[in-house]
Design brief:
Elements: H1 2-16, E1 20-22, H2 23-30, H3 34-43, E2 47-57, E3 64-73
Antiparallel strand pairs: 1-3, 2-3
């Protein structure tokens, strides 16, 4: 049920952001890893690309934090990931 709600939330963000989303803000708000967020966007049919490492400087102190970011774009025609094939039982 948690994954279903998450996917609905991601679809809503795609609709509101004109089908192109920067994952860094979502990653911080939802407290998800970049890999998990990328997998969920791919399952919706989005094309996901890594943007590299963003450096954010702290407001109160001068420390920098590295965060990986990604971009998800929903394009037509949709390309869903192919299901993995299991081993054949003999």
């Amino acid at each position: 049920m948690k994954d279903k709600i998450l996917l609905h939330l991601l679809v809503l963000t795609l609709i509101l952001d004109d089908f192109s989303v920067d994952c860094s803000v979502l990653q911080q708000d939802l407290k998800l890893t970049t890999k998990k967020l990328m997998e969920n966007f791919k399952s919706l049919g989005c094309r996901v690309s890594k943007l590299g490492v963003k450096r954010k400087s702290g407001v109160e102190d001068d420390t920098t934090v590295d965060t990986h970011s990604c971009s998800a774009v929903l394009r037509i025609p949709l390309e869903f990931p192919r299901p993995r094939k299991g081993r054949k039982n003999k």
